[in-house]
TrEMBL record:
This is 3-methylmercaptopropionyl-CoA dehydrogenase. Residues 282-450 form the Acyl-CoA dehydrogenase/oxidase C-terminal domain. Involved in the assimilation of dimethylsulphoniopropionate (DMSP), an important compound in the fixation of carbon in marine phytoplankton, by mediating the conversion of 3-(methylthio)propanoyl-CoA (MMPA-CoA) to 3-(methylthio)acryloyl-CoA (MTA-CoA). Its EC number is 1.3.99.41. Belongs to the acyl-CoA dehydrogenase family. It comes from the Bacteria. Residues 163-272 form the Acyl-CoA oxidase/dehydrogenase middle domain. It comes from Litorilituus lipolyticus. InterPro entries: Acyl-CoA_dh-like_C_dom, Acyl-CoA_Oxase/DH_mid-dom, Acyl-CoA_Oxase/DH_mid-dom_sf, AcylCo_DH-like_C, AcylCo_DH/oxidase_C, AcylCoA_DH/ox_N, AcylCoA_DH/ox_N_sf, AcylCoA_DH/oxidase_NM_dom_sf. Residues 468-599 form the Acetyl-CoA dehydrogenase-like C-terminal domain. The lineage of its organism: Bacteria, Pseudomonadati, Pseudomonadota, Gammaproteobacteria, Alteromonadales. Residues 41-157 form the Acyl-CoA dehydrogenase/oxidase N-terminal domain. Keywords: FAD, Flavoprotein, Oxidoreductase.
Length: 606
């Protein structure tokens, strides 16, 4: 019942008009093939695959789920065939380096591909999605031999990868990891322990699965400083990649869970499984950050995907469903009632969804450009600069966009009324599937601590200042009162944005000062601080989109309605969503006392 059309016009608007992606590609000789013609052709093919192959499996995959039988996991009907088509189409290799069989196109194009696939079918997209993180980890930290062996197959898509961090006693606090790695003296290690909640940990899509596993060497220091990283294949291979004996990794079960039912979430038992070290001893967590950062942006994307799918479907419904009359007089006199889209409350939900999916997409594409820059950096300084900007924005993207994606999914269900609660329509599935996004890859609370604790307080606001400098530069440039009419029109966005940025800096400083006296302020303020920051960041991108739309209105007569819609959505965002910062600001500045003063014994009298 659900429909999906890839939003190619919105995507192109961001790539071409807002972010100037084609001149960005021209800066790097490696990306010279990424011309508008080639990119358009890729998008068309990708859209076809998503709309015709992946979307039809979205609801059936949820209904059927994955099956577990004695260690063997079977994915829902059609998943394997769609994966085969994906591999044959070269989709997995699209934006990976040529030397390992990739097509060498920019990572940012891979992000657009992932967006389309993830919106059409998030559960399916998780299987190839996890592999990208595994590939980036091997690419960054692997030896020449490891790259040759693992990257080639992962890039083709004939093998997939996983990320094995979580254990029964710990998901957030990885310092508690117990899995052991005993050296065999020949460069291999025996890995023993239990990992839980491993996405794509076992399945029938590929002949082999490459697990990237956190474990402890003998006598390793306690806590996070004693964790190393290992590559552990499901099936052992020779250096040429020919499959040999099964390794001692077994799937104990898969989880019966709330959503993403077609994505297998496995319990993996490692029982003296053979593995090799990747990266330096006891530096596993640092190496794993490569994986986790890729995965965090990938999860932020899930917020946009949920928002987009919910929006597209609730918009269709809101135009068709008839209920009562518009408060300003009949809009549909020949019918028994007006469609619900005429009611301001329904319109508010739709506009919120639209602002979230288009604003969220802009935030992701901004980050994708930084990923390109990191990958192509010629000097350490260039890499560090782009890395710092990406590191600052990543927790905001992950937590803010997944919280808003969930909000949009809920609005979608609400617009369908009682029918939204009925499975047949698919809207409740979007809510169930979106719910995980605020949990895995670090919960919203943990992202918020990362932002406020590590990225703001630890750097004494350096990353924040770099980002706000960029926003203020934009504001200064666009607000100059000039004869050019669209520059004057931009003031309705520029003034509130400049004010919000100034407040952001002030509040950050005030929190830093308070934290000197009471560390609990960091934990009590952090989630509100993150959401507050998220609304300002999204405001910056809505202002940029409005600016580009004003510019295009003057030249592109054919698509004027499209640009007008962007400007009106920006107005909606600034008038009805940016003000949410006020409530977050009030709460984040409150004394932690009101959270902590009630003795835990007095929390309940049962
Ligand atoms: C469907 C699914 C797929 C997953 N896929 C993978 C995967 O592929 N690989 C993998 O390794 N893991 C995976 N996970 C695990 C996931 O990343 C963890 O569940 C998540 O990070 C949270 O860890 P936890 O469940 O142990 O919760 P806990 O760490 O026990 O946290 C419980 C609550 O306490 C809060 N909390 C904890 N510590 C603090 C603190 N210091 N300050 C403030 N609040 C705190 C958390 O925010 C949370 O609200 C998956 C989980 C699920 C459900």
């Amino acid at each position: 019942m659900l429909t999906y059309k890839a939003p190619v016009a919105d995507i192109n608007f961001l790539l071409k008009d807002v972010f100037g992606y084609y001149s960005h590609y021209q800066k790097f000789p490696e990306f010279e093939e990424a011309t508008p013609d080639l990119v358009d052709a890729i998008f068309q093919e990708c859209a076809k695959f998503c709309e015709n192959e992946l979307l039809p499996l979205y609801q059936s995959g949820d209904k059927e789920g994955c099956q577990f039988d004695n260690g063997v996991v079977t994915t829902p009907k059609g998943f394997k065939e769609a994966y085969q088509q994906y591999v044959e189409g070269g989709w997995q290799s699209l934006s990976h380096p040529v030397e390992h069989g990739g097509q060498g196109l920019p990572p940012s194009l891979g992000m657009v591909k992932s967006e389309m696939m993830g919106t059409a079918n998030w559960s399916w997209a998780m299987y190839p999605g996890l592999s990208h993180g595994a590939m980036n980890t091997v690419e960054t930290h692997g030896t020449k031999e490891q790259k040759e062996l693992y990257l080639t197959r992962l890039t083709e898509g004939t093998w997939t990868g996983t990320m094995c961090l979580t254990e029964p006693q710990c998901g957030t606090d990885l310092g508690q990891v117990k899995t052991k790695a005993i050296p065999n003296g020949d460069g291999t290690y025996n890995i023993t322990g239990t990992k839980i909640f491993i996405s794509a940990g076992e399945h029938d899509l590929t002949e082999n699965i490459i697990h990237i596993v956190l474990a402890r060497l003998p006598d390793a220091p306690a806590g996070t400083r004693g964790i190393s990283l290992f590559i552990v294949p499901k099936i052992q291979t020779d250096q040429q990649g020919n499959l040999g004996e099964a390794n001692n990794v077994t799937c104990g079960s898969i989880e019966d869970k709330m959503g993403i039912k077609a994505s297998a979430t496995a319990v993996l038992n490692f029982d003296n499984a053979k593995g090799v070290l990747i990266g330096p001893e006891n530096k596993g967590l640092e190496c794993m950050f490569t994986f986790m950062n890729t995965a965090r942006i990938g999860t932020a994307l899930q917020g946009v995907c949920s928002a987009e799918l919910a929006y597209q479907n609730s918009l269709i419904y809101a135009k068709e469903r008839l209920s009562m009359r518009s408060l300003t007089g009949k809009k549909n006199p020949e019918q028994v009632a007006d469609p619900i889209i005429v009611h301001p409350d329904v319109r508010k939900m739709l506009m919120t969804q639209k602002a979230i999916s288009e604003g969220g997409r802009a935030m992701i594409y901004y980050a994708a450009k930084l990923v390109d820059e990191i990958e192509m950096a010629k000097t350490q300084e260039e890499r560090e600069q782009a890395d710092e900007r990406l590191g600052f924005i990543t927790p905001i993207l992950k937590a803010f966009l997944t919280e808003l994606g969930l909000e949009s999914a809920n609005h979608g269900l609400q617009i369908f009324g009682g029918h939204g609660y009925i499975k047949e329509w698919g809207m409740e599935q979007i809510v169930r599937d979106a719910r995980i996004s605020t949990l895995y890859e670090g919960t919203t609370g943990i992202q918020a601590l990362d932002l406020l604790g590590r990225k703001i307080l630890l750097t004494r606001g350096k990353s924040l200042n770099n980002f706000t400098k960029e926003v203020l530069l934009f504001c200064k440039d666009k607000s100059v009162l000039s004869k050019n009419p669209h520059k004057r029109q931009m003031n309705k966005f520029i003034w509130p944005l400049s004010k919000a940025v100034a407040n952001w800096q002030q509040y950050s400083l005030r929190i830093a000062l308070k934290a000197k006296k009471n560390r609990d302020i960091v934990g009590s303020a952090s989630v509100d601080y993150l959401m507050y920051s998220g609304y300002i960041v999204m405001g910056y991108f809505w202002a940029q989109m409005a600016q580009s739309a004003y510019e295009k209105l003057a030249t592109d007569v054919e698509n004027r309605d499209f640009y007008r819609a962007k400007i009106k959505t920006a107005e909606f965002y600034f008038n009805r969503m940016l003000p949410r910062t006020k409530s977050h600001a009030k709460t984040m500045m409150e004394d932690p006392k009101t959270l902590m003063q009630l003795d835990q014994e007095l929390l309940s009298f049962l």
